[in-house]
């Protein structure tokens, strides 16, 4: 995932959904999709594929919005070749915007506190979505991934929560005061051990801010290091 550089072609579908507003590309994912800002809207657009579904993301956003600060879904659709998701803009900007890369301690703390707040807010018993290890392994195998035998025996669950599902730093928004404001990109949201999120969130810190930020993140989240679960869920992320 990255902030687009250079000219980005704006699909006709996005122009139609923007309704005449100025269109600015803000994010590109590794699956060929681009998110655009158009006035007070964000328009996620990309090719249809088997890795994710914007319809599933819309369903998860609608559910999570009952308890958490996530984007409101305004429109979602698909054709044989493309899919799109339109949401209302939220306060704040991605935690990897240039100004937060220049203030990594502030960004790391905000990402950690935001993830803890999400885990505490979303009710496990009411969640209809699953992101457990068995489910992730089945989906990985359906996509043709080779899941090593060692990953079929996960560590015991530390705390069952509703996980974000892609808790990398860019998916937390931060306000002008340096505090988290919202979470985005919840297409994989579901119940799982909280370390499924924590392990990936801390791994992403190195990609975005450089090495050495895990300790601050864990302190701000409110949990001690867990090398076993961290190693396991990072390995699972790479496969699944």
From TrEMBL:
<dbReference type="Pfam" id="PF01636">
    <property type="entry name" value="APH"/>
</dbReference>
<dbReference type="InterPro" id="IPR024165">
    <property type="entry name" value="Kan/Strep_kinase"/>
</dbReference>
<feature type="domain" description="Aminoglycoside phosphotransferase">
    <location>
        <begin position="40"/>
        <end position="229"/>
    </location>
</feature>
<keyword id="KW-0067">ATP-binding</keyword>
<comment type="similarity">
    <text>Belongs to the aminoglycoside phosphotransferase family.</text>
</comment>
<keyword id="KW-0547">Nucleotide-binding</keyword>
<keyword id="KW-0418">Kinase</keyword>
<dbReference type="InterPro" id="IPR002575">
    <property type="entry name" value="Aminoglycoside_PTrfase"/>
</dbReference>
<keyword id="KW-0046">Antibiotic resistance</keyword>
<dbReference type="InterPro" id="IPR051678">
    <property type="entry name" value="AGP_Transferase"/>
</dbReference>
<protein>
    <submittedName>
        <fullName>Aminoglycoside 3'-phosphotransferase</fullName>
    </submittedName>
</protein>
<dbReference type="InterPro" id="IPR011009">
    <property type="entry name" value="Kinase-like_dom_sf"/>
</dbReference>
<keyword id="KW-0808">Transferase</keyword>
